[in-house]
Design goal:
Blueprint: E1 4-7, E2 12-15, E3 24-28, H1 39-59, E4 64-68, H2 75-84, H3 90-111, H4 127-139, E5 143-146, E6 149-152, H5 168-175, E7 189-194, E8 212-214, H6 216-228, E9 232-238, H7 242-257, E10 263-269, E11 272-274, E12 277-278, H8 289-294, E13 299-300, H9 303-311, E14 319-320, H10 323-340, H11 351-358, H12 363-375, H13 379-388, E15 399-400, H14 426-441, H15 445-457, E16 460-466, E17 472-478
This protein binds adenosine monophosphate and zinc ion.
Length: 480
Protein backbone atom coordinates (compact mmCIF):
# COMPACT_ATOMS: atom_id res chain seq x y z
CA UNK A 1 0.00 0.00 0.00
CA UNK A 2 1.39 3.40 -0.98
CA UNK A 3 1.02 6.25 1.48
CA UNK A 4 0.61 9.79 0.27
CA UNK A 5 1.26 12.59 2.72
CA UNK A 6 0.97 16.34 2.41
CA UNK A 7 4.37 17.92 2.99
CA UNK A 8 4.46 21.49 4.37
CA UNK A 9 7.99 21.79 2.95
CA UNK A 10 6.95 21.27 -0.67
CA UNK A 11 3.29 22.28 -0.26
CA UNK A 12 2.31 19.09 -2.09
CA UNK A 13 0.83 15.71 -1.38
CA UNK A 14 3.64 13.26 -2.17
CA UNK A 15 4.17 9.51 -2.16
CA UNK A 16 5.86 8.61 1.13
CA UNK A 17 9.25 6.93 0.71
CA UNK A 18 10.98 6.20 4.00
CA UNK A 19 14.75 6.60 4.22
CA UNK A 20 14.87 3.08 5.65
CA UNK A 21 11.68 0.97 5.45
CA UNK A 22 13.10 -1.24 8.23
CA UNK A 23 13.06 1.76 10.56
CA UNK A 24 10.57 4.47 9.70
CA UNK A 25 11.23 7.45 11.96
CA UNK A 26 8.78 10.09 13.13
CA UNK A 27 9.22 12.99 15.57
CA UNK A 28 6.30 14.99 16.96
CA UNK A 29 6.68 18.01 19.23
CA UNK A 30 5.14 17.14 22.58
CA UNK A 31 3.74 19.01 25.54
CA UNK A 32 5.35 21.59 27.76
CA UNK A 33 4.55 20.07 31.13
CA UNK A 34 3.23 22.75 33.46
CA UNK A 35 -0.55 22.28 33.43
CA UNK A 36 -3.35 20.05 32.13
CA UNK A 37 -3.37 19.67 28.35
CA UNK A 38 -6.40 21.16 26.59
CA UNK A 39 -8.32 19.47 23.82
CA UNK A 40 -6.49 21.59 21.19
CA UNK A 41 -3.28 19.94 22.41
CA UNK A 42 -5.05 16.59 22.07
CA UNK A 43 -5.46 17.10 18.33
CA UNK A 44 -1.84 16.45 17.26
CA UNK A 45 -1.65 13.58 19.76
CA UNK A 46 -4.67 11.88 18.16
CA UNK A 47 -3.77 12.72 14.55
CA UNK A 48 -0.21 11.43 14.79
CA UNK A 49 -1.41 8.39 16.71
CA UNK A 50 -3.51 7.47 13.67
CA UNK A 51 -0.46 7.99 11.45
CA UNK A 52 1.66 5.87 13.82
CA UNK A 53 -0.90 3.05 13.62
CA UNK A 54 -0.98 3.29 9.82
CA UNK A 55 2.83 3.25 9.55
CA UNK A 56 2.96 0.22 11.84
CA UNK A 57 0.42 -1.51 9.62
CA UNK A 58 2.33 -0.77 6.42
CA UNK A 59 5.92 -1.28 7.60
CA UNK A 60 5.41 -3.61 10.58
CA UNK A 61 5.03 -2.68 14.24
CA UNK A 62 8.74 -3.26 14.91
CA UNK A 63 9.83 -1.07 12.04
CA UNK A 64 8.52 2.29 13.16
CA UNK A 65 10.09 4.59 15.75
CA UNK A 66 7.87 7.34 17.08
CA UNK A 67 9.46 9.97 19.30
CA UNK A 68 7.40 12.59 21.11
CA UNK A 69 9.34 14.82 23.46
CA UNK A 70 8.49 16.32 26.81
CA UNK A 71 9.54 19.94 27.25
CA UNK A 72 10.45 20.19 30.91
CA UNK A 73 12.45 23.41 30.85
CA UNK A 74 10.43 26.54 30.20
CA UNK A 75 9.54 29.86 31.83
CA UNK A 76 5.93 28.75 32.32
CA UNK A 77 7.13 25.73 34.29
CA UNK A 78 9.33 27.91 36.50
CA UNK A 79 6.45 30.29 37.18
CA UNK A 80 4.06 27.46 38.02
CA UNK A 81 6.61 25.83 40.32
CA UNK A 82 7.22 29.08 42.22
CA UNK A 83 3.47 29.65 42.54
CA UNK A 84 2.45 26.15 43.64
CA UNK A 85 5.42 25.24 45.83
CA UNK A 86 6.73 28.52 47.24
CA UNK A 87 8.41 26.77 50.18
CA UNK A 88 10.50 24.35 48.12
CA UNK A 89 13.81 25.09 46.41
CA UNK A 90 12.95 25.95 42.78
CA UNK A 91 14.56 22.86 41.27
CA UNK A 92 12.60 20.57 43.54
CA UNK A 93 9.39 22.50 42.88
CA UNK A 94 10.01 22.23 39.13
CA UNK A 95 10.50 18.49 39.41
CA UNK A 96 7.20 18.18 41.25
CA UNK A 97 5.34 20.21 38.63
CA UNK A 98 6.82 18.39 35.64
CA UNK A 99 6.41 14.89 37.09
CA UNK A 100 2.85 15.54 38.13
CA UNK A 101 1.91 17.12 34.79
CA UNK A 102 3.53 14.33 32.80
CA UNK A 103 1.46 11.78 34.73
CA UNK A 104 -1.73 13.73 34.05
CA UNK A 105 -0.86 14.02 30.39
CA UNK A 106 -0.31 10.28 30.07
CA UNK A 107 -3.54 9.41 31.84
CA UNK A 108 -5.42 11.84 29.59
CA UNK A 109 -4.02 10.71 26.24
CA UNK A 110 -4.22 7.03 27.25
CA UNK A 111 -7.93 7.62 27.79
CA UNK A 112 -8.15 8.99 24.24
CA UNK A 113 -6.92 5.66 22.89
CA UNK A 114 -3.46 6.91 21.90
CA UNK A 115 -0.55 4.47 21.87
CA UNK A 116 2.53 5.58 23.76
CA UNK A 117 5.37 6.65 21.46
CA UNK A 118 8.49 4.44 21.44
CA UNK A 119 10.53 7.16 23.11
CA UNK A 120 9.43 10.17 25.18
CA UNK A 121 12.64 12.05 25.77
CA UNK A 122 12.83 14.87 28.29
CA UNK A 123 14.67 18.04 27.33
CA UNK A 124 16.62 18.20 30.59
CA UNK A 125 18.14 14.79 29.85
CA UNK A 126 19.62 15.97 26.54
CA UNK A 127 21.71 18.97 27.56
CA UNK A 128 25.02 17.39 26.35
CA UNK A 129 23.52 16.88 22.87
CA UNK A 130 22.33 20.50 22.85
CA UNK A 131 25.78 21.74 23.78
CA UNK A 132 27.32 19.53 21.07
CA UNK A 133 25.02 21.01 18.41
CA UNK A 134 25.89 24.52 19.55
CA UNK A 135 29.62 23.79 19.31
CA UNK A 136 29.13 22.46 15.76
CA UNK A 137 27.17 25.55 14.80
CA UNK A 138 29.78 27.92 16.21
CA UNK A 139 32.54 25.99 14.47
CA UNK A 140 30.69 26.16 11.16
CA UNK A 141 30.12 29.91 11.43
CA UNK A 142 26.36 29.53 11.97
CA UNK A 143 26.27 30.72 15.58
CA UNK A 144 28.01 33.31 17.72
CA UNK A 145 28.43 34.20 21.38
CA UNK A 146 27.33 37.61 22.59
CA UNK A 147 26.78 38.79 26.17
CA UNK A 148 26.68 35.20 27.52
CA UNK A 149 24.07 34.19 24.93
CA UNK A 150 24.59 31.98 21.90
CA UNK A 151 22.64 33.10 18.86
CA UNK A 152 21.95 31.39 15.56
CA UNK A 153 23.09 33.65 12.70
CA UNK A 154 20.17 33.52 10.29
CA UNK A 155 22.18 35.30 7.57
CA UNK A 156 24.58 32.31 7.52
CA UNK A 157 21.87 30.10 6.03
CA UNK A 158 20.76 30.97 2.53
CA UNK A 159 17.64 28.85 2.59
CA UNK A 160 16.28 30.11 5.93
CA UNK A 161 12.51 30.60 5.66
CA UNK A 162 12.08 27.66 3.26
CA UNK A 163 9.62 25.73 5.43
CA UNK A 164 7.41 28.63 6.47
CA UNK A 165 7.71 30.20 3.00
CA UNK A 166 7.71 33.58 4.56
CA UNK A 167 9.39 36.50 2.93
CA UNK A 168 12.33 38.06 4.72
CA UNK A 169 10.20 41.16 5.33
CA UNK A 170 7.46 39.18 7.04
CA UNK A 171 9.92 37.34 9.25
CA UNK A 172 11.70 40.58 10.07
CA UNK A 173 8.45 42.27 11.05
CA UNK A 174 7.88 39.48 13.57
CA UNK A 175 11.46 39.49 14.81
CA UNK A 176 11.57 43.26 15.38
CA UNK A 177 9.13 42.93 18.22
CA UNK A 178 11.89 41.32 20.23
CA UNK A 179 15.13 43.10 19.32
CA UNK A 180 17.69 42.34 21.95
CA UNK A 181 21.05 44.07 22.29
CA UNK A 182 22.91 40.77 21.97
CA UNK A 183 21.49 40.06 18.50
CA UNK A 184 23.59 41.02 15.47
CA UNK A 185 20.56 40.68 13.27
CA UNK A 186 16.93 41.06 14.41
CA UNK A 187 16.06 37.61 13.05
CA UNK A 188 18.79 35.73 14.90
CA UNK A 189 17.38 33.43 17.54
CA UNK A 190 18.60 32.17 20.89
CA UNK A 191 20.30 28.79 21.16
CA UNK A 192 21.46 29.28 24.72
CA UNK A 193 20.89 31.96 27.34
CA UNK A 194 22.19 32.69 30.83
CA UNK A 195 19.96 31.49 33.66
CA UNK A 196 18.63 33.94 36.19
CA UNK A 197 19.51 33.24 39.83
CA UNK A 198 17.54 30.23 41.10
CA UNK A 199 16.53 29.07 37.61
CA UNK A 200 17.63 25.66 36.31
CA UNK A 201 21.11 25.98 34.84
CA UNK A 202 23.84 23.91 33.23
CA UNK A 203 27.45 24.57 32.24
CA UNK A 204 27.38 26.67 29.07
CA UNK A 205 28.91 25.91 25.66
CA UNK A 206 30.99 28.35 23.58
CA UNK A 207 33.41 29.18 26.40
CA UNK A 208 30.74 31.14 28.31
CA UNK A 209 31.71 31.36 31.99
CA UNK A 210 28.23 31.61 33.55
CA UNK A 211 25.76 28.75 33.61
CA UNK A 212 22.74 28.86 31.32
CA UNK A 213 19.88 27.00 29.69
CA UNK A 214 18.85 26.06 26.18
CA UNK A 215 16.43 27.82 23.85
CA UNK A 216 13.23 25.93 23.06
CA UNK A 217 13.93 25.21 19.38
CA UNK A 218 17.28 23.63 20.19
CA UNK A 219 15.71 21.03 22.47
CA UNK A 220 13.87 19.33 19.62
CA UNK A 221 16.91 19.33 17.31
CA UNK A 222 18.90 17.60 20.06
CA UNK A 223 16.25 15.01 20.97
CA UNK A 224 15.46 14.17 17.34
CA UNK A 225 19.19 13.73 16.64
CA UNK A 226 19.75 11.49 19.65
CA UNK A 227 16.79 9.20 18.99
CA UNK A 228 16.28 9.34 15.22
CA UNK A 229 19.62 10.41 13.76
CA UNK A 230 20.70 13.42 11.70
CA UNK A 231 17.91 12.89 9.17
CA UNK A 232 14.58 11.15 9.53
CA UNK A 233 11.25 10.72 7.78
CA UNK A 234 8.42 12.69 9.36
CA UNK A 235 8.31 15.70 11.65
CA UNK A 236 4.92 16.74 12.98
CA UNK A 237 3.06 19.18 15.18
CA UNK A 238 0.36 21.82 15.10
CA UNK A 239 0.30 24.46 12.38
CA UNK A 240 1.39 27.15 14.87
CA UNK A 241 4.76 25.41 15.14
CA UNK A 242 5.75 25.96 11.49
CA UNK A 243 7.22 29.35 12.30
CA UNK A 244 9.39 29.99 14.13
CA UNK A 245 9.76 26.64 15.95
CA UNK A 246 10.11 24.21 13.06
CA UNK A 247 11.86 26.67 10.78
CA UNK A 248 14.48 27.11 13.50
CA UNK A 249 14.78 23.41 14.30
CA UNK A 250 15.37 22.78 10.62
CA UNK A 251 17.99 25.56 10.44
CA UNK A 252 19.88 24.26 13.48
CA UNK A 253 19.91 20.61 12.40
CA UNK A 254 20.72 21.22 8.73
CA UNK A 255 23.57 23.60 9.55
CA UNK A 256 24.98 21.47 12.38
CA UNK A 257 24.98 18.22 10.39
CA UNK A 258 25.54 19.65 6.90
CA UNK A 259 22.43 18.23 5.27
CA UNK A 260 19.84 20.03 3.21
CA UNK A 261 17.01 18.31 5.07
CA UNK A 262 16.22 17.49 8.67
CA UNK A 263 13.00 15.55 8.07
CA UNK A 264 11.79 14.63 4.59
CA UNK A 265 8.13 15.24 5.35
CA UNK A 266 6.79 18.00 7.61
CA UNK A 267 3.18 17.56 8.67
CA UNK A 268 0.98 20.03 10.53
CA UNK A 269 -2.50 19.71 11.97
CA UNK A 270 -4.98 22.59 11.81
CA UNK A 271 -6.36 24.31 14.89
CA UNK A 272 -9.15 23.28 17.12
CA UNK A 273 -11.08 26.53 17.35
CA UNK A 274 -13.72 28.09 19.53
CA UNK A 275 -15.89 30.56 17.66
CA UNK A 276 -13.24 31.01 15.00
CA UNK A 277 -10.31 31.48 17.39
CA UNK A 278 -7.57 29.00 18.22
CA UNK A 279 -8.22 27.23 21.49
CA UNK A 280 -5.36 28.26 23.75
CA UNK A 281 -4.39 28.75 27.35
CA UNK A 282 -3.63 32.42 26.78
CA UNK A 283 -7.04 33.23 25.29
CA UNK A 284 -8.75 31.45 28.18
CA UNK A 285 -11.12 29.71 25.74
CA UNK A 286 -9.97 26.22 26.54
CA UNK A 287 -11.38 22.98 27.87
CA UNK A 288 -8.88 20.53 29.30
CA UNK A 289 -8.97 16.86 28.40
CA UNK A 290 -9.35 16.21 32.11
CA UNK A 291 -12.42 18.45 32.42
CA UNK A 292 -14.00 16.68 29.50
CA UNK A 293 -13.32 13.29 31.05
CA UNK A 294 -14.47 14.30 34.51
CA UNK A 295 -17.17 16.83 33.93
CA UNK A 296 -17.95 19.23 31.12
CA UNK A 297 -21.39 20.50 30.22
CA UNK A 298 -22.58 18.33 33.07
CA UNK A 299 -21.20 15.01 31.84
CA UNK A 300 -18.07 12.93 32.12
CA UNK A 301 -17.30 12.16 28.48
CA UNK A 302 -15.65 8.94 27.33
CA UNK A 303 -12.31 9.47 25.57
CA UNK A 304 -13.60 7.64 22.51
CA UNK A 305 -16.18 10.38 21.94
CA UNK A 306 -13.50 13.08 21.76
CA UNK A 307 -11.38 10.91 19.47
CA UNK A 308 -14.33 10.34 17.14
CA UNK A 309 -15.30 14.02 17.15
CA UNK A 310 -11.70 14.94 16.31
CA UNK A 311 -11.27 12.44 13.47
CA UNK A 312 -14.50 13.57 11.80
CA UNK A 313 -12.56 16.47 10.27
CA UNK A 314 -9.49 16.12 8.05
CA UNK A 315 -6.40 16.89 10.11
CA UNK A 316 -5.34 19.90 8.06
CA UNK A 317 -8.71 21.63 8.37
CA UNK A 318 -9.70 23.71 11.38
CA UNK A 319 -12.33 22.21 13.70
CA UNK A 320 -14.90 24.42 15.36
CA UNK A 321 -15.45 22.99 18.79
CA UNK A 322 -19.01 22.62 20.03
CA UNK A 323 -20.79 20.44 22.56
CA UNK A 324 -23.02 19.31 19.71
CA UNK A 325 -20.10 17.72 17.82
CA UNK A 326 -19.09 15.83 20.93
CA UNK A 327 -22.67 14.83 21.67
CA UNK A 328 -23.20 13.49 18.16
CA UNK A 329 -19.90 11.60 18.24
CA UNK A 330 -20.88 10.04 21.53
CA UNK A 331 -24.34 9.05 20.33
CA UNK A 332 -23.00 7.46 17.15
CA UNK A 333 -20.45 5.37 19.05
CA UNK A 334 -22.97 4.50 21.72
CA UNK A 335 -25.32 3.12 19.09
CA UNK A 336 -22.57 1.31 17.18
CA UNK A 337 -20.98 -0.24 20.25
CA UNK A 338 -24.41 -1.50 21.32
CA UNK A 339 -24.85 -3.18 17.95
CA UNK A 340 -21.32 -4.57 18.06
CA UNK A 341 -21.97 -6.38 21.32
CA UNK A 342 -21.04 -10.03 20.75
CA UNK A 343 -19.68 -9.36 17.23
CA UNK A 344 -16.02 -10.31 16.70
CA UNK A 345 -13.80 -8.22 14.51
CA UNK A 346 -13.08 -9.21 10.92
CA UNK A 347 -9.44 -10.25 10.47
CA UNK A 348 -8.54 -6.86 8.96
CA UNK A 349 -9.98 -3.40 8.47
CA UNK A 350 -11.63 -3.07 5.02
CA UNK A 351 -9.30 -2.00 2.20
CA UNK A 352 -11.53 0.94 1.45
CA UNK A 353 -10.89 2.37 4.91
CA UNK A 354 -7.13 1.75 4.65
CA UNK A 355 -6.99 3.34 1.21
CA UNK A 356 -8.63 6.51 2.51
CA UNK A 357 -6.25 6.70 5.47
CA UNK A 358 -3.30 6.13 3.13
CA UNK A 359 -4.43 9.18 1.18
CA UNK A 360 -3.05 11.83 3.55
CA UNK A 361 -5.03 10.49 6.53
CA UNK A 362 -8.51 11.02 5.17
CA UNK A 363 -10.17 10.14 8.47
CA UNK A 364 -13.42 11.94 7.65
CA UNK A 365 -13.72 9.83 4.49
CA UNK A 366 -12.94 6.73 6.53
CA UNK A 367 -15.68 7.60 9.02
CA UNK A 368 -18.17 8.01 6.18
CA UNK A 369 -17.31 4.41 5.19
CA UNK A 370 -17.84 3.32 8.80
CA UNK A 371 -21.36 4.77 8.68
CA UNK A 372 -22.01 2.82 5.48
CA UNK A 373 -20.69 -0.39 7.07
CA UNK A 374 -23.06 0.08 10.00
CA UNK A 375 -25.99 0.82 7.76
CA UNK A 376 -25.44 -2.28 5.67
CA UNK A 377 -24.90 -4.48 8.73
CA UNK A 378 -21.25 -5.30 7.99
CA UNK A 379 -20.56 -5.24 11.71
CA UNK A 380 -17.44 -7.44 11.86
CA UNK A 381 -15.74 -5.09 9.42
CA UNK A 382 -17.01 -2.07 11.34
CA UNK A 383 -15.44 -3.40 14.52
CA UNK A 384 -12.14 -4.10 12.74
CA UNK A 385 -12.10 -0.61 11.23
CA UNK A 386 -12.90 1.04 14.57
CA UNK A 387 -10.15 -0.92 16.28
CA UNK A 388 -7.69 0.04 13.55
CA UNK A 389 -8.52 3.68 14.24
CA UNK A 390 -7.83 3.21 17.94
CA UNK A 391 -11.36 2.97 19.34
CA UNK A 392 -12.01 0.76 22.35
CA UNK A 393 -15.32 -0.67 21.10
CA UNK A 394 -16.29 -1.17 24.74
CA UNK A 395 -19.81 -0.13 25.60
CA UNK A 396 -19.78 3.56 26.52
CA UNK A 397 -21.18 5.12 29.61
CA UNK A 398 -22.07 8.77 29.75
CA UNK A 399 -21.90 9.57 33.40
CA UNK A 400 -23.87 12.28 35.02
CA UNK A 401 -21.85 14.56 37.22
CA UNK A 402 -23.38 15.42 40.52
CA UNK A 403 -24.28 19.05 40.20
CA UNK A 404 -25.36 21.10 43.15
CA UNK A 405 -29.11 21.43 43.23
CA UNK A 406 -29.59 20.14 39.72
CA UNK A 407 -31.11 16.98 38.40
CA UNK A 408 -29.88 15.85 35.08
CA UNK A 409 -31.50 13.39 32.79
CA UNK A 410 -29.27 11.66 30.31
CA UNK A 411 -31.00 11.04 27.04
CA UNK A 412 -28.78 8.63 25.18
CA UNK A 413 -30.61 8.29 21.93
CA UNK A 414 -32.28 11.22 20.28
CA UNK A 415 -32.52 14.49 22.10
CA UNK A 416 -29.43 16.67 22.14
CA UNK A 417 -27.73 17.00 25.46
CA UNK A 418 -29.09 19.79 27.53
CA UNK A 419 -26.58 22.16 28.99
CA UNK A 420 -27.49 22.50 32.57
CA UNK A 421 -27.31 25.89 34.08
CA UNK A 422 -31.01 26.23 34.61
CA UNK A 423 -30.72 25.78 38.31
CA UNK A 424 -27.77 28.10 38.67
CA UNK A 425 -28.79 31.73 38.44
CA UNK A 426 -26.53 34.42 37.04
CA UNK A 427 -26.23 35.85 40.55
CA UNK A 428 -25.01 32.49 41.79
CA UNK A 429 -22.39 32.33 39.06
CA UNK A 430 -21.25 35.87 39.90
CA UNK A 431 -21.10 34.95 43.57
CA UNK A 432 -18.80 32.02 42.81
CA UNK A 433 -16.62 34.20 40.59
CA UNK A 434 -16.28 36.69 43.44
CA UNK A 435 -15.33 33.87 45.83
CA UNK A 436 -12.74 32.72 43.32
CA UNK A 437 -11.33 36.24 42.94
CA UNK A 438 -10.98 36.40 46.72
CA UNK A 439 -9.22 33.03 46.76
CA UNK A 440 -6.85 34.21 44.04
CA UNK A 441 -6.11 37.43 45.90
CA UNK A 442 -5.20 35.27 48.91
CA UNK A 443 -3.05 33.07 46.62
CA UNK A 444 -5.25 30.13 47.50
CA UNK A 445 -4.86 28.55 44.08
CA UNK A 446 -6.30 25.21 45.05
CA UNK A 447 -9.57 26.86 46.06
CA UNK A 448 -9.63 29.08 42.99
CA UNK A 449 -9.08 26.06 40.74
CA UNK A 450 -11.74 24.14 42.62
CA UNK A 451 -14.32 26.85 42.00
CA UNK A 452 -13.35 27.10 38.33
CA UNK A 453 -13.66 23.32 37.95
CA UNK A 454 -16.94 23.21 39.78
CA UNK A 455 -18.40 25.83 37.45
CA UNK A 456 -16.93 24.05 34.43
CA UNK A 457 -18.66 20.86 35.52
CA UNK A 458 -21.90 22.82 35.34
CA UNK A 459 -21.14 24.10 31.87
CA UNK A 460 -19.99 27.56 32.93
CA UNK A 461 -16.66 28.48 31.41
CA UNK A 462 -14.63 31.26 32.99
CA UNK A 463 -12.38 33.56 31.01
CA UNK A 464 -9.69 35.49 32.80
CA UNK A 465 -8.67 38.71 31.15
CA UNK A 466 -7.93 42.34 31.82
CA UNK A 467 -10.41 45.18 32.05
CA UNK A 468 -9.98 48.59 30.40
CA UNK A 469 -8.16 49.74 33.55
CA UNK A 470 -5.65 46.87 33.29
CA UNK A 471 -7.05 45.10 36.34
CA UNK A 472 -7.90 41.40 36.14
CA UNK A 473 -11.53 40.63 35.33
CA UNK A 474 -13.25 37.30 34.94
CA UNK A 475 -16.10 36.88 32.52
CA UNK A 476 -18.12 33.74 31.93
CA UNK A 477 -20.22 31.99 29.36
CA UNK A 478 -22.20 28.82 29.04
CA UNK A 479 -20.42 26.13 27.08
CA UNK A 480 -22.53 24.90 24.21
P1 LIG B 1 1.85 23.79 23.18
O1 LIG B 1 1.76 23.15 24.53
O2 LIG B 1 1.04 25.04 23.01
O3 LIG B 1 3.28 23.92 22.71
O4 LIG B 1 1.17 22.78 22.17
C1 LIG B 1 1.47 21.40 22.08
C2 LIG B 1 0.97 20.90 20.74
O5 LIG B 1 -0.43 21.17 20.59
C3 LIG B 1 1.63 21.57 19.54
O6 LIG B 1 1.81 20.62 18.51
C4 LIG B 1 0.63 22.63 19.12
O7 LIG B 1 0.77 22.97 17.77
C5 LIG B 1 -0.67 21.91 19.38
N1 LIG B 1 -1.81 22.83 19.60
C6 LIG B 1 -1.90 23.80 20.54
N2 LIG B 1 -3.10 24.43 20.47
C7 LIG B 1 -3.81 23.80 19.48
C8 LIG B 1 -5.12 23.98 18.93
N3 LIG B 1 -5.97 24.89 19.41
N4 LIG B 1 -5.51 23.17 17.93
C9 LIG B 1 -4.67 22.22 17.45
N5 LIG B 1 -3.42 22.01 17.90
C10 LIG B 1 -2.98 22.79 18.91
ZN1 LIG C 1 9.68 20.81 18.65
Amino acid sequence: MELRLYNTLTKKKEPFRPLDPANVRMYVCGPTVYDFAHIGNARPVIVFDVLFRLLRHVYGADHVTYVRNITDVDDKINARAARDFPDLPLNEAIRKVTEETEKQFHADVDALGCLRPNVEPRATEHIPEMRAIIEKLIEGGHAYVEQDHVLFAVASMQTYGRLARRSLDEMLAGARIDVAPYKRDAMDFVLWKPSKPGEPSWPSPGGIAVEGRPGWHLECSAMAWKHLGEQFDIHGGGIDLVFPHHENELAQSCCAFHHDRMANVWMHNGFLQVEGEKMSKSLGNFVTIRELREGWAGYAWPGDALRFAMLGTHYRQPIDWTAKTLDEAHKTLWRWYGDLDGVSAAPAAPDEVLALLADDLNTSGAIAVLHALHKSGRLAELRAALMFLGFSCEQLQLQRRSVIGTTLEVEMTNAPIKVIVQSLSEAEVEQRIAARAAARAAKNWAESDRIRDELAAMGVVLKDGKGADGKPVTTWEVAR
